[in-house]
Design goal:
Layout (H helix, E strand, L loop, with lengths): L3 H9 L8 H15 L12 E4 L4 H13 L7 E3 L3 H8 L10 E4 L5 H9 L5 E16 L9 H8 L2 E3 L7 E3 L5 H4 L10 E3 L5 H15 L5 H7 L1 H9 L7 E3 L4 H10 L4 E5 H6 L4 E3 L9 H6 L5 E9 L9 H8 L2 H4 L15 H13 L6
Parallel strand pairs: 1-2, 1-3, 7-8, 7-9
Antiparallel strand pairs: 3-11, 4-9, 4-10, 4-11, 5-6
Helix pairs in contact: 1-2, 2-4, 3-14, 6-8, 8-10, 9-10
Length: 366
């Protein structure tokens, strides 16, 4: 067996870029779990999958279908969040590194550079569909109509100082009426994703930042002082008005049933599963329904991805079967079984394109 000390040495990898404390913790946990199943002279005989908690239920259903029709050993799956999964995926080509990561956002250039630095040079990128980032409230609450500007004013940590002195002040808004005079005079209480998740990234970029840019002078500030622009437009407040709940959407649903004045940020799949308890809010006048998410008219929608390490294809059983099942029409089409748990499918032409990428294991250019 590999010892815990050996695993810690692999996890630390001093010659490679440092990871955040949270990702290091996840990395060590994953490595310890893998090491417990390996002897020093054996190769693992199962697939390792990490990444997005949004895609995790879909992945589990895909795995269930595969297991029902094969003698393959079940993959080891760790829902680490998109950022954590990509960090682990780009850590190298060793046996303790994951073969596939799921992401609710595209891989970033900095992550591709880390992959390349660590020898992960052939990455197969497969778009699997779409999802919406939903602002939801209890069905017992009075509905409000949000704009991205409202979201920025409610959730930003910093605001430009209108007076002399320090250039920035803490968000002065404590109630929804402070944000918008047409809203109720109730405390701002939003439960949402933590740092590092794909959902948080989309919230910051497509909701917060786009709402911020409406404010006077923000477009000019981006050119004049990019650092201060990012502080104002992309930094979410960390007081009681915004509560990070990690990667558990179910906790958000429970919170809404307990506090009718709260809002929660959930995926489209969670919304569909709990429509009897929660309702989605419109954003800039657009409701987050199936077609609006797929065609992009709902402005906080996002593509979902699967990233696979091509070098794992002939090493670890189940690799090709997993990609083939996930990209089958039985799974990801409009009538497929993944539709029932919230996947918003691509159009047929796009599905055909990415099914071919998965079948031929065509690596992305970077």
């Amino acid at each position: 067996m590999l010892s815990s000390l050996q695993v810690m040495r692999v996890a630390s990898r001093p010659s490679k870029p440092q990871m955040s404390k949270s990702v290091v913790t996840v990395s060590i946990a994953v490595l310890l779990l893998v090491a417990s199943n390996l002897s020093a002279d054996s190769r693992r005989d199962y697939l390792m999958i990490v990444g997005s908690t949004t895609i995790h239920p879909m992945s589990q259903l895909v795995i269930k279908r595969i297991m029902e029709n094969s003698d393959l050993r079940a993959p080891m799956v760790q829902p680490t969040g998109s950022g954590g999964g990509l960090s682990l995926f780009c850590n190298g080509n060793d046996e303790l590194d994951p073969d596939i990561t799921l992401a609710s956002r595209p891989i970033r250039q900095s992550e591709l550079e880390k992959c390349k630095l660590n020898g992960v040079n052939e990455i197969v990128e497969v778009k699997i569909g779409y999802d919406g980032v939903i602002f939801a409230q209890s069905r017992d609450a009075t509905p409000i109509k949000l704009t991205r500007y409202d979201i920025y004013r409610a959730l930003a940590k910093w605001f430009p100082n209108p007076d002399e002195g320090e250039p920035l002040i803490a968000n002065p808004h404590s109630t929804w009426k402070d944000v918008n005079g047409d809203f109720p005079d109730t405390p701002i209480s939003v439960r949402g994703p933590s740092k590092g998740s794909g959902t948080r990234y989309i919230l910051e970029r497509l909701a917060m930042e786009e709402g911020c840019r409406i404010a006077e002078g923000m477009v000019e500030l981006e050119e004049e002082d990019p650092w201060q622009y990012r502080l104002i437009c992309r930094t979410i407040r960390d007081d009681d008005a915004y509560v990070e709940v990690g990667e558990n959407d179910e906790l958000n649903v429970d919170a809404l049933t307990e506090n009718a004045n709260a809002l929660a940020i959930v995926s489209y799949g969670v919304l569909e599963a709990h429509e009897d308890l929660i309702r989605p809010l419109t954003i800039d006048g657009i409701a987050p329904d199936f077609e609006a998410i797929r065609n992009g008219s709902y402005l906080i929608s996002r593509p979902l991805y699967l990233y696979a390490r091509k070098s794992s294809a002939n090493l670890y059983p189940g690799f090709r079967e997993y990609l083939a099942e996930f990209t089958s029409e039985e799974a990801w089409s409009k009538s497929g079984y993944l539709r029932s748990i919230g996947l918003v499918p691509m159009l047929a032409e796009e599905r055909k394109k990415y099914a071919a990428v998965a079948n031929t294991l065509t690596p992305m250019d970077f």
